Amino acid sequence: SKMKGGVIILNFARDLLVDDDAMEEALKSGKVGRYITDFPNDRTAQMEGVIAIPHLGASTEEAEDNCAKMAVKQVMDYLENGNIQNSVNYPNCNMGVCTKAGRIAIAHRNIPNSLSRFTTAMAEDGINISDMVNRSRGAYAYTMLDMDQPASDALVAHLEKIEGVLRVRNIK
Q1: Of 91, 145, 138, 83, which is closest to residue 110 (Cα–Cα)?
Q2: Chain-centroid distance, C-alpha 170
Q3: What sign results for the dihedral spanned by CA atoms 151, 154, 124, 138?
Q4: Taken in order 115, 132, 149, 164, is the CA torsion positive or negative?
Q5: Cα separation of 1 and 14, whole Å?
Q6: Residue 24: what are its φ and ψ, rounded to 5°?
């Protein structure tokens, strides 16, 4: 009764903390303008003025264990295959497990003509590119190239000198 009318109530705790009868009455009267919860029950999910959003459960022990396992798998996939998932600075980029003779991963700035410089360097080294993926996010990009033969140290050194290249990894 002491709140101004039309307030918005955010509930990111459990649904049992809210009296459903009182919430329904407050919504109908306009005292509560919206009730936002990530833990709707069968009743509140049907109420007018309720915004129900998914509950992520990220702070439960099970969720933390699952997140830790997921992070380990993603780091291993990056180290073994060059694939990136859920990075803060780089886009998701996944070519699976390399089945070709070689794979190069290039972290670089997102600037024009980068791909043509990479492919030209490989052509000059006599390497055929059998598969390629390039993704960008803002100022950064990531390119993976599968090749019919492994990259030479000279090719890696050449790629590292190309404008905008931050890191070259010879995955396989």
Answers
A1: 138
A2: 24
A3: positive
A4: positive
A5: 23
A6: -60, -45
Are the C-beta atoms of 77 and 144 separated by less than 8 Å? no
**Mind listing the pLDDT tens digit of every residue in the chain (172 residues)?**
788 899 999 888 766 788 889 989 999 999 999 998 887 887 888 889 998 887 766 667 887 888 889 889 999 999 999 999 988 888 999 999 999 999 999 999 999 999 999 999 999 999 999 999 999 999 999 999 999 999 999 999 999 999 999 999 999 9
Dist. CA 52–CA 47, nearest whole Å:
10
Side-chain half-sphere of 92: how many Cα atoms within 13 Å?
Answer: 4
Q: How far apart are CA 67 and CA 74, in angstroms?
A: 10
